[in-house]
Amino acid sequence: MGLSLVYHFRSSQNQDGEFHPARYRVVYFFSPNGFLDDKELRELSKSVPDADHQELTFLSLDDLKSFGLRVAQEYQHPNVRLISVQDYNIGLDGARDLNSLKRIFEQFGELVENETVRKKGFLSKFFS
Question: What is the pTM assigned to this prediction?
Answer without folding.
Answer: 0.83
